[in-house]
Model the fold of this input.
Amino acid sequence: MKLAINHATLLKTPIEPFIKAIAKAGFKGVELRRDETFLYLKDHTVEDLNLLLRKNNLECITFNAIELFSLCPESEFQRIVDYTERLMNIGNQIGCETIIAVPSFINDTSLDNSKIISYTVDRLKILAKLAENYDFKLGFEPLGFPNCSVRKIDLALKIIEHEDLPEMGLIIDTFHFFLGGHSIEDLDLINLKNLWLIHMNDSIKKPIEQLQDSDRVLPLEGFFELDAFVKKLKIIGYNKWISIELFNEEMWKQDPEIVAQKTMISLKKLI
Done:
């Protein structure tokens, strides 16, 4: 498995020192986040970004993310389409070809799974046409929070395998996997070709229903069954990217080189 890191893990570190820190720690892949990329490009060119990645021997494996696209108002969806096209254009110039789409939270309790599938597929069809124009791939990441419209693997598979959509893949985040009440055996539901990326993280111990993104910690520092999770990945033959994604605000305050090094050590110990 190849090791990457999501910019969320060092979110308060600007892109240039972030890239240098993770390269020094030995990472080969990076997931860039939308807002931080746009902020960098206020004072730099896309070519600057490309050179920064190349000089540090890093591959941008995804952009994060097309956020909460599936049930939002049409005006908000148009804004999403606009920034998605901008990211795809940037991606063409820096060698990134995948963007992650995250489903909406749900306020209307009358929506059943059939309607959620229908609405989500309709929006993904629009995004897929855009992706085709830029030779991009769409990854889909279910969220385990109780009010997310798609929190389970089986429902996510019904969406990405829909006959009206081109090939899509799942991004499985261990935080959302366990928050969503999955068992390790649920990974067997996924055809290996449809499992594109693993977001790896652990969590401080508290009741599952109380967990928030900020509770994420380094692998093997929390209570998730990550050893069993990785063992299952190896059994099913997964050999793609493992990307650590934390939203731990205390880590954002620390020296980025130290955090990047600690992160690499924790991943190597787990993998």
